[in-house]
Write a structure and sequence with these properties.
The complex is a heterodimer of chains A (500) and B (341). Chain A is an alpha/beta fold and 500 residues long. Chain A is 31% helix and 25% strand. Classes of the chains: A alpha/beta (500), B mainly alpha (341). Chain B: It is found in: Cell membrane.
Chain lengths: 500, 341
């Protein structure tokens, strides 16, 4: 940390809560000009909340907020912009149908006196800016035609060259290939020389250690460590992120957990050399009956794409799928369902009909089994009632509109729709995300029960606890490739994070 | 039915006002109908008579037959702009396959009545299938796909009649279109049967449930393993066939088959479905709503003829009523979404 220098940005005692839950508790944070400051912490530790306060997204909080030593209070992202603060969000926010140049100048295209866009000037300047970044593309090419990694680099370039003095990057490297990461880092270092202050959030701790000067660690809404990057290690940072104090209520999975002998039962799903453009490469694995296969990886590692391919929602570019030995190419989700595959996606909104009663939500996937032509509402209700009882869905009223149930109960309904006629293979994406401890345990018990009934189950999650609490065998997915398999050996949160 | 009552109880527990708000799409059209009927009954002594009720029923029959299929399409959150054109071409086709009087200057292909009817229905089903393939396989938005089909069907019509007018249609069609039984026009009976059939399919069959679910949340339907494309394709074919039947009976009803005969039915049919309260965003509404919408339009069109009003102003009034219905339709959706939160 530069001694004696005035911080460009200083936060003191920041506290922020969402609906009674404290996301940040008394956090101090200082950022100096010409510094790259890495932020690490688990999902929900408070990193993104803090950055959104800095970028003017969240405007309600308590604590002091100083820019150049002067107290400020942003009312919007525009105010933050005016103060020279810009942020690249985790999700790509580009206009794929516009040209590269238009994207670089989005919102402030150069115009002449009549207000007409100066296309030639825009193209030239965009080309120059991108060249500084080591990106060689035609500025008049349609952005959407470029690979995702390049699109992300262009978005980052737009923010970096917008003249901001403080730049926040949230998970900038998740969609980038190694050479693209190198180019990004080279540019960040050059901007640091020019005096820009950069905040770099990432799950990839190696990346953080390589590029940042200082690292701050968050845990449960608190800042738990701040050190010079040169003075720490990956192991030390992971330890600080997870915490050894046992302060968490739940099983923290910090100690080794012994995975069982791999199952020798029937292979239900065989995936061979699956690939999908830049998202997945050469994915091969098997899922067996009566076994829970966990697939762990960071956000954007390709889990979502993989789950969609298994359910026929996305078509892979290459590779094969076989269900119980029969090769399959799913033309639709209906084909996947008929082959005995079921998917519960991470977003309940995608899975459920909020304006329809619970029983229709539960029966929708099995209607063809219970009625040929005419509906049998009484039968549907009976089936739904049985599921509601078994899964302890509250309130236990199958005629109630789904939208009136709590999130955890909705998640149970999403599971319930597959359980009356159990599939051969059940794919669960983030099955316990956003649930309280009680609901989490309910879901864990349901999954264990299904395993006992002989289903092959795949659990994909970005939360190590979810995978550790459910899986018999764990695959680690990193930037679209399977990098490690844990089987019949000790595993812990540390080991998972280390592998990913 | 026990969970129906539980459902009602659940709603009661939340109070009457939210329930009314969530039901606004059903209540508003009905109030509009009552208001319009009362207004015209008061303004004109000739309006509220049994004879005139018969008039209104007959006047809305062709629209009603077309609107059955359109209800399926709009429930899926799609649109079919080719309904009037397909009605027209099917009506022309059935006349084309019937022997015309010697003074009709059309190079037609006379066939037995049953064959003529079957070929005409195949024609409209085929046009609906083209809509379906364009929408689901190629992925053209239904708005654009059916706009193209509107032109294609009009083009086929033009080629078949070449500016002439045909009069004869098979006797079955003549009877159903312009005959009556016990004082009740057959066309009203056909419309009633088709509306009832549509209602039964939507309410009591698995396919009907799929239509509502696809319209309610297409993404969720796909994640539930439904064949969404098949369902969307089916509703486009149903819409075209309903339009074709409406077109054949319409030709018999009007007594002639010619170009551009059904142009006003496009707007009328869409208006009937939407005014009735079926959500433009899909998943809400049904044939019951369409029937109310048909009556609103029928009473309005008929009533305006009974009161002394500038006939050119009527067009504007109809437009304004449609706009009001659209506002209510979209507003009702917002209210419902709020009530759900």
């Amino acid at each position: 940390m530069p001694e004696g220098q005035q911080p460009i940005l200083e936060l003191q005692g920041i506290t922020k809560s969402f609906g009674g839950v404290e996301a940040l508790r008394g956090v101090d944070f200082a950022l100096y000009p010409g510094e790259i400051h890495g932020l690490v912490g688990e999902n929900g530790a408070g990193k993104s909340t803090l950055m959104k306060i800095i970028a003017g997204v969240h405007t309600e909080f308590s604590g002091r907020f100083l820019v150049d030593g002067k107290e400020m209070h942003f009312r919007s992202t525009r105010d933050a912009h005016a103060a020279g603060i810009a942020m690249v969000h985790q999700e790509l926010s580009v206009a794929p149908d516009l040209t590269v140049a238009e994207n670089v100048f989005l919102g402030n295209q150069p115009t002449n006196r009549l207000g007409l866009v100066q296309w030639r000037r825009m193209a030239r300047e965009a080309g120059e800016q991108l060249a500084r970044f080591g990106i060689d593309v035609d500025p008049m090419a349609r952005l959407g035609d470029l690979p995702i990694g390049l699109q992300q680099l262009i978005e980052i370039a737009r923010v970096l060259f917008s003249g901001a003095r403080i730049v926040i990057l949230d998970e900038p490297t998740s969609a980038l290939s190694p050479p693209e990461v190198e180019r990004l880092f080279a540019t960040l270092r050059r901007l640091r020389e020019e005096g820009t202050a950069i905040v770099f959030i990432s799950h990839f701790i190696e990346d953080i250690l390589r590029v940042s000067d200082t690292v701050t660690v968050f845990r449960n809404g608190r800042k738990v460590a701040e050190t010079a990057s040169a003075a720490t290690s990956k192991g030390a940072l992971i330890e600080a992120m997870i915490g050894r104090g046992g302060e968490a209520l739940e099983h923290s999975y910090t100690d080794d957990l012994m995975l069982p002998q791999p199952s020798a039962s029937k292979v239900v799903l065989k995936v061979d050399q699956l690939s999908l453009s830049r998202s997945l490469q050469d994915i091969s694995f098997e899922a067996r009956a009566g076994e829970v296969l966990g697939i762990y990886g960071f956000m954007g590692c390709g889990q979502q794409e993989l789950s969609r391919i298994l359910f026929g929602k996305l078509k892979p570019d290459g590779g094969t799928l076989a269900v119980e030995g029969t090769p399959k190419t799913f033309a639709s989700t209906a084909a996947a369902r008929r082959a005995g595959v079921a998917l519960v996606p991470e977003s309940r909104r995608d899975m459920l009909f909020h304006q329809e009663p619970v029983y229709k939500n539960i029966s929708i996937s099995i209607l063809d089994r219970i009625s040929a032509l005419l509906l049998k509402p009484a039968r549907e209700r009976d089936i739904a009632k049985r599921q509601v009882e078994q899964l302890q869905i509250r309130p236990p009223v199958v005629g109630l509109d789904l939208g009136m149930l709590s999130g955890g109960n909705q998640q149970k309904v999403a599971l319930a729709k597959w359980l009356t006629y159990p599939p051969k293979l059940l794919v669960l994406c983030e099955p316990t995300r956003g649930m309280d401890v009680g609901a989490k345990n309910d879901v864990i018990n349901i999954v264990r029960d299904l395993r006992a009934r002989g289903l092959a189950i795949i659990v994909l999650s970005t939360e190590p606890e979810t995978v550790l609490s459910l899986a018999d065998r764990i695959l680690v997915l990193k930037r679209g490739t399977l990098v490690r398999e844990f089987r019949n050996e000790p595993v812990s949160k540390d080991r998972l994070l280390e592998a990913a | 039915m026990s969970s129906e009552t539980a459902l009602a109880a659940g709603r009661r527990a939340r109070g009457l006002a939210p329930f009314l708000r969530s039901q606004m799409r059903n209540i508003a059209p009905f109030l509009t109908l009552i208001f319009l009927t009362a207004f015209f009954a008061f303004a004109s002594p000739s309006f509220a008579t049994l004879d005139n009720l018969g008039n209104i029923l007959t006047q809305v029959s062709v629209t009603g037959i077309i609107a059955v299929g359109l209800t399926f399409v709009i429930l899926c959150a799609e649109i079919d702009l080719s309904i009037a054109s397909i009605a027209n071409v099917t009506g022309i086709a059935v006349a084309y396959f019937t022997l015309q009087e010697s003074y009709v200057n059309i190079a037609n292909v006379p066939l037995p009545g049953a064959v003529a009817i079957i070929l005409s229905i195949l024609l409209c089903a085929l046009l609906g299938l083209v809509n379906a393939l364009g929408l689901t396989v190629i992925g053209i938005p239904s708005f654009i796909m059916t706009l193209a089909m509107m032109q294609i069907a009009a083009g086929i019509s033009a080629l078949l009649v070449r500016g002439q007018i045909a009069y004869k249609v098979p006797s079955l069609i003549t009877t159903l279109g312009s005959g009556s039984i016990g004082g009740i026009p057959w066309i009203v009976i056909v419309a009633a049967i088709m509306l009832l059939g549509g209602h039964l399919v939507l309410t009591y069959t698995r396919f009907g449930r799929y239509v509502y679910m696809v319209g309610g949340n297409r993404e969720a339907a796909e994640y539930s393993g439904l064949n969404v494309k098949l369902i969307l394709g089916a509703v486009m074919v149903i819409s075209a066939v309903c339009s074709g039947i409406g077109g054949m009976l319409g030709v018999a009803h009007f007594g002639s088959a010619q170009q551009n005969e059904f142009d006003t039915y496009l707007l009328d049919s869409i208006a009937a479905v939407v005014v009735g309260g079926t959500s433009l965003f899909g998943g809400r509404g049904g044939i019951g709503n369409t029937i109310v919408g048909l009556f609103v339009l029928g009473v309005l069109n008929n009533g305006l003829d009974h009161v002394n009003i500038d006939s050119f102003l009527k067009i504007l009034i109809r437009g304004l009523i449609l706009l009001a219905a659209l506002v209510i339709n979209v507003y009702a959706q917002h209210l419902r979404e709020k009530a759900a939160e």
